[in-house]
Amino acid sequence: MTISPKLLKGGIALLDPTTGTILPNGIISLQYNPDTISRTLQVQGTGGEGGDRSEALRLKGPPVETIKLEAEIDATDQLETGDGTAVELGLHPQLARLELLVYPTSRQLQSNNSMARSGQLEILPMEAPLTLFVWSKQRTTPVRITELSITEDAFDTSLNPIRAKISLGLRVLSVDDLGFSHKGGTAFMSYLQNKEQLAGRIAGGNPDTIGFSGV
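Request: output the structure for the sequence above.
Response:
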């Protein structure tokens, strides 16, 4: 008998930013892992054109890393097995769960409105949960969701979406954004240290291979 290896799902984990504990219903796994993930690292250097030459090789902090991915969700299998929620609502619950990642809660909005009506001069922006993008043990990092695009391309007879494509834009949050004492800062340092360990698994190259003999 052939035993297939367990396929890990990529996804998002929502944590309490103070305690670091996973929030209720705080795990959102992708139904199907996307085939492609695009990552961009914008270097944070102090040197530049016309800048101080003594600063040309200095880095003022981690690069700004952005991640883009597209995933698909489909209610077909649930509909075939007679899943009650899928039959009644299609993909509405899954889509709502994703959309709430970029909404403050209704309670937060009502609270801020009450404080504003009572004459409080300073209303602090509402804090979202600590969001982690999880793509295996080697790539778990705190992120801010910068873009969420949803394309619904199939519907049932009640106009519930039953197939959709999700496009996510993420910005990695570093210790520059969160600080070292924040739970997200700790998660970022683990992410960076894991990169260093992975890089150390590759043997150093031979200068002759690239035709380099020194300066």
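The radius of gyration is 22 Å.
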